[in-house]
Design brief:
The protein is an alpha/beta fold and 183 residues long. The protein folds into 2 domains: 56 residues, Signal recognition particle alu RNA binding heterodimer, srp9/1 (2-Layer Sandwich), CATH 3.30.720.120; 79 residues, Signal recognition particle alu RNA binding heterodimer, srp9/1. 23% of the residues lie in helices and 30% in strands. The protein contains 4 helices and 8 strands, in the order E-H-E-E-E-H-E-H-E-E-E-H. The strands form 2 sheets. A 4-stranded mixed beta sheet has the order 1-4-3-2, covered by helices on one side. A hairpin with a 2-residue loop joins strand 3 and strand 4. The radius of gyration is 23 Å and the shape is globular. The N and C termini lie far apart (85 Å). The N terminus and C terminus are likely disordered.
Amino acid sequence: MPASSKKGKSRGAPTAEPPPIPPGFGTVTAYLAVEGGLAAIEFYKKAFGAREVMRRVTPNGRLIHGQIQIGDTMVFLSDVFPDSDTASPSSIGTTTVTLHIYTDNVDALWDRAVAAGAKVTQPLENQYWGERYGQLIDPFGHHWTLSMQVKIDREEMEARRQEAEAAFAREERPNRAPRYGDA
């Protein structure tokens, strides 16, 4: 007798194996540690047009886990909790990671992020490698670079490349804006 016609035990529809990577995710997902997770979600919405996907919050209002989508990329974030293996950039004074956003209108996104409270660390300019590019720090201490590809004259590109490489050789960073605490 076929299994489907057996009497007695009810067998539900077979469940399909979930895909190893959830829909909407790439292979790598950034997970940001912040002080003020709920405020960070609101900042990223305002600055980068993030869409909030979900949040889990403690009864006293701390973010256990948040998920936002910026463009086609998911980003996780949470407050730092005692006994955590992570630290927020504001608690250690820097970060070791920079998040990079490619966009089709970098000037508009740049203006939006600065108006929302991001601080400029390298002005938005056409760069020798053929991108309009700049660097920001958000109010939570995370570093962001924003860019889009642009057409640039080959001779200008070469001259600017040589100028930048000479600055790096002198251990200077080209186009660097003053940082917090710089004189």
